[in-house]
Design a protein that fits this description.
Elements lengths: L1 H19 L2 H36 L1
Helix pairs in contact: 1-2
Length: 59
C-alpha cells in the first residue's frame, strides 16, 4: 500500500509542477510515479498468485 501512496504523491507533484511550468520536475515526478505504480502492480499480482497457490495447496 505504501508504493501506491508514493505513486499517488508523485503523480500529484507532477500535476502541480506541470501546471506551474516546471516541466523538468513534472517529467521526473511522472516517470517516478509510473515506475512505482508498475512495481505496485507487479507485487500485487505476485501476492494474488501466491495466495491462490497456497489456497489450493491447503484445500
Amino acid at each position: 500500500m505504501t508504493l501506491l501512496k508514493w505513486a499517488l504523491i508523485c503523480f500529484v507533484v507532477s500535476l502541480i509542477a506541470g501546471g506551474l511550468g516546471f516541466t523538468g520536475i513534472a517529467s521526473g515526478a511522472g516517470s517516478l510515479a509510473r515506475i512505482l505504480f508498475g512495481l505496485f502492480l507487479v507485487v500485487a499480482i505476485v501476492i494474488v498468485i501466491v495466495a491462490f497457490a497456497i489456497g489450493q495447496a491447503v484445500f
